[in-house]
């Protein structure tokens, strides 16, 4: 007769290491995909997962020809793992807060392709944070806005930089800056050499266009609905890839498109009419516990004020 597993009486450092491996495997979607994130081979990951399942007395996932999938117990252990690791980070933050020196981590999520904005408030604030606390560790995660908001809510990110769209009541937001997007085509597109006066008589809605697959503010959504969408992209870099094929028109932030415009690769179509503005904000969890590194970063951000569009 198979003996029932003993209850888990104590969580050791070894258990925590195994749970971190498990978390990475879940978030990467399998053993092979987690190799790069963990810096260890698939066989070592498999051994660690086997050790964790024996330690917990639970089957956490299915793996084989059908691919990787969590069991029901695995999903519950994953949620418990997130809570445990968030508690450990809270403990470390609070202990670090007892020291006069500014130390600890800042985990920040940022929407893709904001680094080329001329208003470098995030960059300058991070520089000031490192000046005040040389031992501070900064971790930047480039992920979609919805994922950033959820990560701020569950505590895995301290702060996010996202478009001001459908802000959740449980998040606090602070205005950051505005971003203007224009409609572009590439130099090998039929409209590239059509002058502005002639473009007024061209129906842009008949041109093949690329549509973002991420949420858009109302003004942006209204602009895209006028276009003949025949391709989608999950981020702005993907949109740029498709526009540069010369087969599509599409909207890009003007700061992202600027290098290609200056080199003659892209051209804005009817910029006075075909444009929209996206407001960006920082988001933090409402009612969060004090976090010295985060508060220092927010103070550095606020000290810069709100520069005008195009101002560094």
UniProtKB/TrEMBL annotation:
It holds the Pfam family HTH_1. GO terms for molecular function: DNA-binding transcription factor activity; transcription cis-regulatory region binding. CDD domains: PBP2_LTTR_substrate. The keyword Transcription applies. Signal peptide: none annotated. Keywords: DNA-binding, Transcription, Transcription regulation. It comes from the Bacteria. InterPro entries: LysR_HTH_N, LysR_subst-bd, WH-like_DNA-bd_sf, WH_DNA-bd_sf. Residues 14-71 form the HTH lysR-type domain. Coiled coil: none annotated. Belongs to the LysR transcriptional regulatory family. PANTHER family: HTH-TYPE TRANSCRIPTIONAL ACTIVATOR BAUR, HTH-TYPE TRANSCRIPTIONAL REGULATOR. This is DNA-binding transcriptional regulator, LysR family. It comes from Modicisalibacter ilicicola DSM 19980.
